[in-house]
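Sample pair:
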Amino acid sequence: MDLKLYSRYRNSAGQRVRTALNIKEVPYEYIPVSLDGGAPESYRAVNPQLLIPSLVIDGEIVTQSTAMVEFIEERFDGPSLFPEEPVARARSRAFSQVVACEIHPVIGPKIQRHLRAAYDIGRDGRADWYGHWIHQGFETLEELLRRRTMQTPFCYDDRPTVGDIYLVPQMYNARLAGLELSAYPLLLDIDERCRALPAFDRAMPENQPDFPADPSTRAKRH
């Protein structure tokens, strides 16, 4: 099976997919997409939303990272991306969707660009917006973990599953934004444990071929 992943080194949704592929040890071709000012119009032929990532499977295009992660789970052998126990599986899915549906959509680059262009909100205002929604989401995630009836080394299992896959990229972005994260000890502990694993490490932004060698050329969040 031929897999091509259109993504970018600092694309948290793409990092989720990279991690899932790494856990399953599935080879794929990485195709970087520049987002300077937004994805190029030529990319619309791949993804009509002009969003990344996009996964091309033997010529067939799939969009949305959650759909890609589920495809990877259903199609490939290897460690499951979901807990086996049904309630833990549901909770891991729910945890991941707090990130995918409640945090990421309201702080992503397209929202930042719109805040600037439509409402003339400056860098400080956009930083406040970003921090507000990150902290609100992380407070929810921390409380969900605190309420677990069984404490596990990863979110909802003895191994990383979909909740962990979604958490790590969001923690990376929060650190990059300079946010104080000490109020979330459970998130920090799980994030550290995940990042020590090769599958997560290989998916990190700095380990992608389009990661800028010169720090001064790296795209800013705002």
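The chain has a mean pLDDT of 94.
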